[in-house]
Fold this protein.
Amino acid sequence: MPVHVAGAVGDFDYEAHGDGYVRQRRTDPRIAVLIHAALGDARTVLNVGAGAGSYEPADRHVVAVEPSATMRSQRPRHLAPAIDATAAELPFDDDSVDAAMATVTVHQWSDPDRGLREMRRVSRGPVVILTFDGDALDQFWLADYIPQLIVADRPRYPPIERIRAVLGGTSTVTSVPVPIDCVDGFTEAYYARPEAFLDPAVRRSQSVWGFVDTDIAERAVARLRHDLESGAWDRRYGALRNQPEFHGSLRLVTALPAGHSTQVA
């Protein structure tokens, strides 16, 4: 059965199912370069829904917010402890940080609009959101094996234009290419490594599997295993194994307040 929890802080129970995330969901350095560039010259950065600290820049002062004790406990020792708080109620003054970031987390917030407004309130500069475009999720071959995954996942993601509208000011949207050896284990990270989905630990680190009935997921995995063993997957999708990057649904939204300079005062 699905493992999401109604009435939880977010739409997925990280207290019960977040253990081990840090082993599968690591900072990919190529994606990190784009995120850190979007932060501009910010010296103080708020990371909202910080999890175990992926993508936090090492050369700036970072304050992290994370409501799950399980996720906070997985932060590496070289990172500052995260504050127990939610995006919807950030315990900071207006314009108190140079920039704010949230990476692959907005879709799990109980009230994304409120969380985005809070980020805009506390940041005097960029608000940087790494997320997925729900309308582009079905470009990934996994949709052919388990379309229920897309059906479950698509409504979770706030539309990109909605994110831009809530944040206001001026904003840009960048399509983020996923490298073939991406070390951040979201679903599209394995576009060229289909065998990874046979590993339960990989699937457990992707929250969307918790929104699909177990028997449906098991049948999809069994079909994938069969197609890998028979060569059917490679006959259909094998070219992906040598494709250096995948342009799928990963997006980077960078929003600046009206009249903001790219330089931090």
About this structure: Residues 1-9, 11-18 have pLDDT under 50 and may be disordered. The first strand starts at residue 44 and ends at 48. The beta strands are 44-48, 61-65, 99-103, 127-132, 170-175, 178-179, 245-246, 250-256.
